[in-house]
């Protein structure tokens, strides 16, 4: 049965939420931060959406051509191939990808003999890194299907319709956003307000029960053991390729006056380019440098199984599929001594793999990023020296949570990111377990249950 609330009841709920947030959330460096968490759930992921896909990059005219592409299916567009991106200061100690039911390939439905057991690393310095300087104007905990409410200082509200989105629309800085866990039939209410405070939905009394329902659904719908199809530890890789944006500088990739450096193989230092795939070494990649991981499976040809990609690049598949688990172990030590762009602002994020295969940084018409083909920030520092890692989604309906993971400056953080198509959720979870060749259902269910029962620590 759908939950129905009157405007009066909604205002009462908002009042309690506002009071909770005033005590719990702080504003620092242009961003709101609420409570430390060990798990974040994105619910109701998966929309049929059209974005602009690159179909040609013309070096003679410096013009990119795009065409409409429709992404659909469970967790779309995050069921498409993804590349994994890292920005220093960071030391990556482990990375792995798991698939259910013994599907241990880099991509589902790929031929076994196409897989290549080599992994590459990248570290890069880029002039314009606009995608990871997000300024959050809201504080939202997305745990289940939410209703979105905008409230002014006097408590006035205006009904705007129902919501049933991944994380809700982007919110102008003139609004304060409250996200409460109600039901898929709840109404959203909106009015303008001064940006004096942000409110976390953790105050909703229905949060725990909704999260528990999510946990039950997730656990009951996970079938079979999970097999590790890709794995990295320093100096050794299986079915992954490290890259960066040093194309044309060291024997791989290309450079042009139109589009600059393409992606390239990364050397073991995580910074230089390389002529062939290399495993990342036991190194700390400094501020201002980035590297990325693709699978070990080469694209079979331009405009073929990978779609269009820039001529002359080392083109590899990303990690696709409705159900998959990424695992990480990493450290993000302080690095305040330099003056690099994004100094002491480490991050780990996912991109639709089409983006770096065309142009990650540069003319917006030369990638599908601006039109919503998918970015998910898993762990991101928003201001230099911060110890709070935020998560955020971009795929045409930006949103996220202002609860945060604690940045591992001295030790390491182990985490799993679970894409669960059965209930359209993505879970980001701190974990303690080892990343063996296989994960049991019991372990995965435990992770899902943990994230479902509590999205944030008290």
Automatic annotation (TrEMBL):
Where in the sequence is the signal peptide annotated? 1-23
Molecular function (Gene Ontology), one example: glucan endo-1,3-beta-D-glucosidase activity
Coiled coil feature spans? none
Which key words are in the record? Cell wall biogenesis/degradation, Glycosidase, Hydrolase, Signal
Cite the EC number: 3.2.1.39
Q: Record's family?
A: Belongs to the PGA52 family.
Protein name in UniProt:
glucan endo-1,3-beta-D-glucosidase
Organism per entry: Saccharomyces cerevisiae x Saccharomyces kudriavzevii (strain VIN7)
Its organism's taxonomic lineage begins at: Eukaryota, Fungi, Dikarya, Ascomycota, Saccharomycotina
């Amino acid at each position: 049965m759908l939950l129905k609330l009157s405007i009066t009841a909604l205002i009462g709920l908002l009042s309690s939420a506002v009071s909770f947030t005033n005590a719990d959330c702080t504003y620092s460096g242009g961003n709101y931060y609420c409570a430390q968490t060990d798990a974040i759930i994105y619910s109701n992921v998966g929309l049929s959406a059209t974005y602009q896909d690159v179909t040609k990059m013309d070096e003679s005219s410096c013009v990119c051509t795009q065409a409409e592409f429709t992404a659909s299916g469970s967790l779309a567009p995050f069921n498409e191939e993804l590349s994994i991106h890292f920005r220093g200061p960071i030391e990556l100690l482990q990375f792995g990808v798991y698939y259910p039911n013994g599907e241990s390939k880099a991509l589902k439905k790929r031929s076994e003999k196409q897989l290549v057991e080599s992994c590459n690393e990248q570290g890069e310095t880029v002039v314009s890194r606009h995608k990871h300087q997000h300024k959050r104007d809201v504080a939202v905990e997305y745990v289940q299907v939410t209703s979105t409410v905008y409230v002014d200082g006097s408590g006035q509200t205006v009904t705007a319709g129902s919501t049933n989105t991944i994380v809700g629309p982007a919110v102008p800085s003139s609004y304060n956003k409250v996200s409460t866990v109600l039901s898929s039939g709840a109404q959203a209410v909106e009015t303008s307000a001064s940006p004096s405070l942000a409110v976390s939905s953790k105050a909703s009394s229905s949060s725990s029960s909704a999260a528990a329902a999510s946990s039950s659904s997730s656990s009951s719908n996970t079938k079979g053991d999970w097999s590790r199809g890709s794995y990295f530890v320093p100096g050794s890789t299986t079915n992954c390729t490290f890259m960066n944006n040093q194309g044309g500088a060291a024997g791989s990739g290309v450079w042009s006056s139109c589009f600059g450096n393409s992606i390239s193989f990364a050397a073991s230092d995580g910074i230089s380019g390389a002529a062939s795939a290399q495993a990342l070494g036991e190194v700390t990649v400094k501020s201002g440098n980035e590297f990325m991981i693709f699978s070990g499976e080469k694209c079979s040809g331009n405009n073929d199984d990978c779609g269009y990609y820039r001529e002359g690049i080392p083109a590899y598949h990303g990690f696709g599929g409705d159900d998959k688990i990424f695992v990480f172990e990493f450290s993000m030590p302080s690095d305040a001594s330099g003056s690099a762009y994004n100094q002491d602002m480490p991050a780990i994020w996912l991109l639709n793999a089409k983006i770096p295969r065309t142009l990650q940084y540069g003319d917006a018409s030369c990638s599908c990023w601006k039109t919503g083909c998918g970015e998910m920030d898993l762990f991101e520092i928003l201001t230099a020296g911060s110890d709070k890692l935020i998560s955020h989604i971009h795929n045409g309906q930006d949103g996220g949570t202002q609860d945060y993971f604690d940045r591992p400056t001295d030790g390491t953080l182990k985490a799993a990111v679970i894409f669960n198509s059965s209930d359209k959720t993505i879970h980001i979870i701190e974990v303690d377990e080892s990343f063996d060749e296989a994960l049991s259902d019991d372990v995965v269910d435990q992770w899902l249950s943990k994230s479902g029962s509590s999205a944030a620590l008290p």
